[in-house]
From TrEMBL:
This is DUF6896 domain-containing protein. It comes from Rhizobium vallis. Residues 10-100 form the DUF6896 domain. InterPro entries: DUF6896 (IPR054191).
Amino acid sequence: MQLSFYSSRIHELLNLQHQLLSAFSQSYPQANDFTHLLNFPRSGILVVDGQRWTFAKHGLGLRFEREEPVPHLVVDMHDKFGDCAKVDWWRLTLFLESMGIATQGADAERAVLEHNRRTQ
């Protein structure tokens, strides 16, 4: 796949991360330990732009899954949860696979490196 394809998907992922973080922060204002997530709920539900998302805490991050509408997108902010501008090959790969787009880790990694080069 071409880098322009990945670039548009990276921007889509970053936009969703921003929306999800904003909705989470509004719904759970007491969750303010962004380093260890100690006071974060283990799981929950958010509604973002009329879309129903569930989340589950794991490790130092949260995994969001869109329940409605289909497809069931996955946004896995697995580390540095408070940084909605962070993207890495793992986040991108899971997001693309949840859209039904098969990708190789090496391709996702190259796309993220190119994105980071352009945005620095």
